[in-house]
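== Sequence and structure of one protein ==
=== Format: two labelled lines per protein ===
==== Data for this protein ====
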Amino acid sequence: RLDFRDVKGVAGLDAALATAKKQGQTVMLDYYADWCVSCKELEAHTFSDATVRNVLSDTLVLRTDVTQNDIEDRALLRRFALFGPPAILFFGTNGEERAAFRVIGYLDAKTFSRHAAQAIGQTEFADRQ
């Protein structure tokens, strides 16, 4: 499984993005909720895949659990104009979202690994797949 670091709210995400930017690291943010069926499928079938883990090995993988739907959860959803999970966002080393690479819904491991490689600029991997 991916080793997610939990973030809460806009402030939590901003702090994680700032750290990643300083380190020249790409970021993936997963919006998750206990009641989200597709989130569970991503966890079981996609995020547990060795190729997916390989592609994201140098990427900071964050998760925000919006199960409670509290004020901080809603603010972080609003920031990116999202209605709820599942949603996966990618950020470049500059800390900016690479919006063209958003994932809404479930993707199988093979499709996701190709997509993630492109999103984080791992063109050599994306070309091999």
Observations:
- The mean pLDDT is 94.
- The longest strand covers residues 27-32.
- Residues 9-22 form the longest helix (14 residues).
